[in-house]
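Handout, section B. The chain below has 97 residues.
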Amino acid sequence: MTVKHTLVSSDMRVFVLCSLMELHRHQNMRVLFLEAAVGFNTPTIVKYSFWRMAYEWKNAMYACLNYGEAFAPEEIKNKSICINGDIGAVLNQIQSA
């Protein structure tokens, strides 16, 4: 799985680089990459990074909660949970369960 990263500005590049370096400290642990309400307007910042790490890290899982755009690539389908719904309604259902 190849994911290209295109960042908007150098400030954002530094932020993402620092955040990814922090994440890599947990690479050998059980990790859930939870993506909530992230669409395809700016997928390079969160979505593609989560997909890549879920693919590369053996103990990682990916979860996506999004209204109309809940999706995981074929390469990580077996380690993914996609919930297509309104985030408010889903969280209310979880809270009342």
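Note. DSSP finds three helices and three strands in the chain. Compare this with the example in section A.
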